[in-house]
Amino acid sequence: MSLTRQSSFQNRSGDGKGALYLVATPIGNLEDMTFRAIRTLKECDIIAAEDTRQTRKLLTHFEISPQMLFSYHEHNKGASGPELIRYIIEGKNLALVSDAGLPAISDPGADLVKLAVEEGISVIPIPGANAALSSLIASGLPTDRFTFIGFLPRERKDVEETLQSFQSAQGTLLFYESPHRVIKTLTAIQSVLGNRKVVLARELTKRYEEFVRGDVQECLDYLQEHPPQGEYCVVVEGTSPEEEQERLAAWWQNLTIEEHVAHYEAQGIPRKEAMKKTAVDRGVSKRDIYNALI
């Protein structure tokens, strides 16, 4: 990849291309909207939205009437992306919005940004509300280092492997989750990462905004009495330097992976389960152990 330089507002190349604006929208409260975001949406020729019905409500509220409102989402991005890029190359300014928060975060907008960069199009962020960072700063957990993971995979084995890959992460972990899956996700976190401190943040900036703080088991107990409602951000403490040092000084440190697995097999544990336990010990995915033994 060759070096490129973008000067968003000065010394534009004069090639006649428009720009791609990534516009943050409210995550709940309409007052999350910034003056700059409103002005940008009013000035852009095209607005591309994940759900045009939802975006029309927002545009109507702020009296914004775009020349074109374009549908762009996960299921049509293959066809819509190149078409939107063509409009920008022809000189149109395009604003991309998601249903809530920053576009291109757990969102197909990231693919549109990639296409724009490849075509030498200026990509300009219009900052605003973000659920993950809002949850983090109010969580009470460390904010100096963090990892945004977003939504976990659907399959249980993939969930476990993903969590195992962050077992040694010392920064706070940020997840998105639906009300239908949050209990399963907390159960998986407890199984793989242990009974860590966790914060459940839901309905951010809305009337029923709520933060539930405790360890994983306490939060699971709370959800048994208070059925999950609304979209959640799950904020999980990372491992401490002391815990990581303890893990690195573990009994298995001088064993090869094959010897590590064999240790568990000698206890009568089936090979598949022995590989899983080895992966948990070492803080890697089960796939990594399997590949090492091939």
TrEMBL record:
Which reaction(s) are listed as its catalytic activity? cytidine(1402) in 16S rRNA + S-adenosyl-L-methionine = 2'-O-methylcytidine(1402) in 16S rRNA + S-adenosyl-L-homocysteine + H(+)
| Compartments, record wording | Cytoplasm
Q: Which Pfam families match?
A: TP_methylase
Q: What GO biological process terms are annotated to this protein in UniProt?
A: methylation
InterPro entries named in the record: 4pyrrol_Mease, 4pyrrol_Methylase_sf, 4pyrrole_Mease_sub1, 4pyrrole_Mease_sub2, rRNA_ssu_MeTfrase_I, SAM_MeTrfase_RsmI_CS
Select a single GO molecular function from the record's annotations and give it: methyltransferase activity
Domain Tetrapyrrole methylase, by residue range, is 20-218
Keyword terms, alphabetized: Cytoplasm, Methyltransferase, rRNA processing, S-adenosyl-L-methionine, Transferase
Sum up the protein's function in the record's words.
Answer: Catalyzes the 2'-O-methylation of the ribose of cytidine 1402 (C1402) in 16S rRNA.
Xref: NCBIfam families? 16S rRNA (cytidine(1402)-2'-O)-methyltransferase
Q: Member of which family? A: Belongs to the methyltransferase superfamily. RsmI family.
HAMAP family on file: 16SrRNA_methyltr_I
Q: What is this protein called?
A: Ribosomal RNA small subunit methyltransferase I
